[in-house]
Structures are given as structure tokens and as C-alpha cells.
Amino acid sequence: MKINIISLFDLLDTYDEKEVEIKLSTFLCVKNLSVQNFLHKNSIPYEKSGTARTFLLVNEQKSIIGYYSLALNTISIGDSQLSHSMEHKIRGVGNSFADHIPGFLIGQLARHDECEKADLDGSNILNYAIDQLTEIHNKIGGRFILIHCIDDLLAFYNQNGFIKVGRKNKLNIMIKLF
User: Fold this and answer.
1) Per the count of CB atoms within 10 A, which of 18, 27, 167, 171 is most buried?
2) How many contiguous H segments (helices) and E segments (strands) does the chain have?
3) Taking the model in full, what pTM does it have?
4) Domain containing 124 — which CATH number?
5) What is the pLDDT of residues 28-81, one digit of tens each?
6) Which range of residues forms the domain containing residue 106?
């Protein structure tokens, strides 16, 4: 299956916002209504404010079969639950006294309910996001990719190279270092 990645930013630049809202409303993820609701209700305001960028995975029929949202983020070392060795790894060489370490956040990641795992699984979507962040990292820097996830997704993110570094508001905080 051929998959195209289309930025919400470009869609809003090309089409009327109402048309884009209608297109986004076709995305269904009843297993996790928060990711469905983010795309339907919050993705456009986040896009317009520059808070996050959302990328749609679209098939040959131009249906949205998945998406992910990316944002800038920092880890405040003094306020974190990190071990000293993890603090050192996150700071990196030359940043031994830095308190705020820049990185990236994968804020949302989802597959449409009607899209088969064989065609697009969570690891595929995650890899699209990581690949894009790696390109950005290679141009401007950043030390990590951060994810907040529910307990049911811990094993998935561990299998994909993320390490749990804390917990906040009932969500696990996981990072992957560049």
C-alpha cells in the first residue's frame, strides 16, 4: 500500500478550513477517543498557534488511515524524576550544567479503525514520526524524543526503543535519545 504523508499545515494553506475539518472528521479511532478527538477538535487550533504540527497518513483513495502530531519540548532536569545517569545522558557532552534540555514530543499517534494492522501498524506510524524528527534533529539539534503514554502502551514503546523515565498525571513519561 502506498502511503503519502501530508501536513495539516499545507492542507490549511491550500483548502478552506471547513473543508479540512470535514476531512479530519472522517478519521475514527474508537479504541482511543482522545486521539480521535484531538484530530477532530484540537489539531487545527494547535496548528494555527504553532504549538504542534500534525501529519496525516493518506492512502491511494485519499483516506486518512493514520496520523501523528509533533511538537518542541524541553525536559527540566531539576524538576524531573530522572536518575543521575539518565540526567547525564540527556544533558550530553558540554551541557553538564544545563537545566532545560531541548527535544521533541510525539503528542499524538493513531491508526484509523478500518485500517488493517497488516497495512499500517503502530510501529510504522511511529517510525514515520521518528524519521521526520531525526531529519529535524540532524539540522537543528535536540537531545531526545518524548512520549506520554498509558500503561497499556508501555510494552509497545519499549519495543520501539523508548525508556520509561517517570510518571505524571496517570501517564508514563518515556524518552528515546538521539
Assistant:
1) 27
2) 7, 7
3) 0.92
4) 3.40.630.30
5) 999 999 999 999 999 999 999 999 999 999 999 999 999 999 999 998 886 667
6) 4-177
